[in-house]
Structures are given as C-alpha cells and as structure tokens.
Amino acid sequence: MTLKLHDDSGKTLSGPKLVWTLISGFRSMYLWAALALFASTAFQFVVPLIGSATIDYVLTDESDYEEPLLKLVMKLIGGAELVTDNLWVPAVAMLVFAALGGLFNYYQKLAAAKASDGICKRLKDQLYNHIQRMSNRHLDQTQTGDLVQRCTSDVETTRIFLAAHIVEIGRGLILIVTVLPIMLSMHVGLTIASMALIPVIILYSYLYIKKVKHLFTEVDEAEGRLTSVVQENITGIRVVRAFGRHDFEIEKFEKPNSEYRDSSIKLINIMAWFWSVADIASLTQIGIALIASTYLALQGTVSIGTIFAFLALLNMVLWPVRMIGRILTDFGKTAVALQRINEILSEPFETEGDEIKLAPEEPVSGRIEFKNVSFAHDKSDPTVEGINLCVEPGETLAILGPSGSGKTTLMHLLLRFYDCNSGEVKLDGMDIKELDRAFLRAQFGVVLQEPFLYSRSIRSNIQFGVNDAQQADIEKAANMACIHDTIRGFSDGYDTEIGEKGITLSGGQRQRVAISRALLRNPPILLLDDALSAVDNETESSIIGALQKRHGKQTTIVIAHRLSTLAHADKIVVLENGKITQSGTHDSLTHEDGLYRRLWTIQTQLEANLAAETNR
User: Fold this and answer.
1) Quick one: average pLDDT of 146-170?
2) How far apart are CA 455 and CA 505, in angstroms?
3) Residue 86 resides in a domain
4) Does residue 137 belong to any structural domain of this protein?
C-alpha cells in the first residue's frame, strides 16, 4: 500500500488527517490497542476505589457518607462484613485488578509497537522505492547524507510517536472523560479544586509547542548536514589520507557538529523550562487538592476514603496531562520529520507519464540519431548545442573532446537521465521521449565514466543486469573484457567479495568488471564512457580486438581521450564547447587541421619518445 502524505497541491497533511492517513492499513491494530487501553484504564480505576471503600466502610467506619460509587465497589468485593473479617480480600482484589490492568496495558503497547513498526517499514520501503525512481535533476541537487537522514532518523522519529504517543493521547482522553464524572459524582467542589490548574497546564503546553516548532526543523536540518559531512568524508577517506588533509577535515566537521550541538542545546533548554514549569504546576495542583480535601474533611463534608480516591485519581490524570507537553513536542518533531519525508514522496518519478509510452515488439536495430539537440542544466549555459549526428546499426561511433565539452552529456541524453531542451534524440526513427524508459534502457549496455561496483561478489556484480546468467556466459563476458584470468587468480575466484564501490580492486580491474557487466547483457547498443582509461595498452588492444569481432552485430559508442582507443571506429566526432567541430574517420581527421590532428601528433610523439627511452 502506498502512503500519500500530501494533498493535490503537494502540501503535507497535518493534524488528525495526517495521523489517520499514516495509520492506514494498521487501523484495526490500533483499534485493538485502544480496546486494551480502555480495559487497562478501567481496571486501574477500580484499584483506588477498592482502597477508598475499604477505608470508609471498614477501617474508619465512615459509611454514613453513603458514597454510591464506593458503596457499589464494596458490594462487588463481598460487602463490609466479609471484608471486615477478611482484610486480605481487598488486598487480593486490588492486586488482581492491578495485574489485569498491567496485562491489558502490555497488550496495548504490543499492538501499538507492531503497528508502528509495520507503518515505518512500509514508509522506508516507499522512500527507498521513490528514491530509485526520482529524477536525476533532483538527485543532483540533494546531499546523500540528507537523504539518508530522512530515510532513517526522520522515520525513527515517526515510529516513536506512533508507538507511544498515539496511545497516550487515547489514554489521556479516556482518563479525562471517565475520571471527571467519577470525581463529580463524589464531590463537585473538591473536583473543581482538583482540576483548577489542568486547563492552565494544557494551554501552557499548546503555547510551548507553538514556540519551539521551528527549532525541530533547525535540529533536523543541522543533523542532516552533519550526516552529509560524515558520509562524504568516509567515502573519500583515502583521498584525505593521500593528501594529508586530516586536520582540514576535522575543522570542516567542527562547524556542522557545533551547529547541531547549539541547536540541540537551545531546544533542550526550552524543553527543560517546560518540564520544570509543568512539574511545578502539577505539584501545585496536588497541593491545592490536598489542602481543599483536608479542609472539607475537617468540616465533615467528605470522608477519608473519598480523599484517598480523589488523590489517587488526580495522580492518574496529572501524568497524561503532564505528558501533553511531551506528546506535543514529539508530535512537532514528527510533523517536521514527515514534512521532510513528504518532500521526497511528493517529488514526481522520472517515469511520470510513461504509462502511455511505446515499447515496440520488434527488436531494436540500433540506429541512433541526434537532430539539432541542445541541453543545459537548469539556467546554466548549454552543455551541448545544435548537435546533429547519426549512427547506423552496427556502426562504431567514437567521441573525442576536452573535459566539459559535453561527451558524457550525450550519453545521459541517450539514456534519458535528462531530456534535451530542444531537438530530438531518435532510436530506430522513434523519438526516445515516446518510448518507455525501462524499454529504452534495456537496449543499452553501459559502462559509465566512473564505474560503480557493489560490495558483493564479483559474480554478482557482473550478472547485475542479468540475474539468471549462467557461469559460462559470465566467463565469456569476462574473457572479452580481459578480466577472466585475473578473477581466477583470486582466492575465491568469481565468489571473491569486493569492498564498497569495488575498492579492493584496482582502477583497471573495476573498469573491466564493469565492461563484463555491460557485455553480458548482450544489448543492441553498447555505450563506453572513457571505459579503458585505467587499463594498460596491451589490455586495451585485447579488449578493442574483442569488440571489433562484434562489429556489425551491435551499435557501439565510445568516449575516450586516448586516440588509439578511437582509431578503429567507423566514425569519429570531435566535441568542443558543446558543439561538433570535426567529424570523419581516423585517416581523414589526421590529415585535417584541427584538435584531432594536434592530439594525434602529441600522443604519437610521446609514444615514440617513450619507446626510445625504453630501448636505451
């Protein structure tokens, strides 16, 4: 079941409507919790009433007051005569009712805990699913640590509220609704004296939560920034050590850590004031009730048993009233947490509207065409502009250009990580915007500029795109990528576990595992974004040779800076400042004045010098 925590305008729901929506699917469990709570509260009420009846009808013989409720309780436990001769009866009765109250209280907490855990599991599942499908634009603008914070700490804040405070709200309502009539039936004046400050405490709690609500947002955001710094530092810890930047990183951590501490202390100080004032008010209320009841007892208006009952019932009511502040505090924190969660859930999927897109039944041949394509990130200058390019099925296209010229952007547009601002990108004559994204991406085997490997076995990484791949196919793809022999040399072979992001492998090994993953998919189109930059010349030649054997069977687009990687391509284009400045074959471009010829001259001369140095 999918939760929708916002209205049609995207605004987060609030108050009872938010809670009602949040517990959908688990309302029956909360109903059982409420019934158990009601039973627990009822049994807890009986305990002080038994004590009061025993005091009035047995110990002090004040039965002349004829309190109807206490008289009824005395009858329920056997009558005054029986209790007088057997004082253990009220003691056992109080113990039994207290035990029953505790038992139902246990079931109430158990039901609420199971419901809250179920709700938060669903919420985490939904958040994780949503993040998988969010647009790249949004992910580019969001810190990873902040996303982690929303999926963990904010959900935990919600769980605590759902597990404890929804039921406490119910307990408070039940106590006020049931205790007040009982106390009024026993003595109106003493009831008024015993409840005099409770409205003041409730009003104070409301004003308090209005004052501190913005602080919850500050604390949450400060914690998110702190998490982002920690996550970034741990991810790049080897770079930090390599450049000896420990002190700089420690100082960098100090600022968000101090901000989090300061905002937390500010919130804690205000909460301390609230609890102090609430405790003083509660103790004052008990004092008022005690003074009033003593005065009335001296006047002969109330019995000692009634006083006992009033003080016991008042203590039962004051605890949830004091908890109102805590409940409102945690509700404020939960509201902020849910607002941050909703900011994720209200983001549209990148596949929004793809339900009506095409997924042709005919196999894709691999013809790619860029027609006057331009693209810019938000309001920045165009990354690519006026690109016109065509790749026929089975051809190999090579793209060369300086850093920032738009090479990788073309890959991203082709995969619909982003949509072009103007122009068309076509696959087999169809505008890719009209194609289902899942279908479109299934046509590609991709090695990104920074190959990402999971902290799993090498086998799991290679078969990532083909879960049911056979070992023979995995080894064939690894052989083509010139990594099979290397893997066999590991102690556990293909079952070797690699570290986070493949850190236990060298850069060239990571690239070759990523190439194996792309080749195993055997797609109509292969995209290699600087995929051979970390391998040696001999390995590069072997991989290129393997790819050339597949020439004509799949369309291949290669991005590289090493010209030897590009020389075998059917067509080479040179990108500069987002525009195509040269296009042709290797032979034609080496005879044409331009960037390609200059780079070829430089690289050829460097290789010649290196060979001469080696032969000395």
Assistant:
1) 82
2) 11
3) yes
4) yes
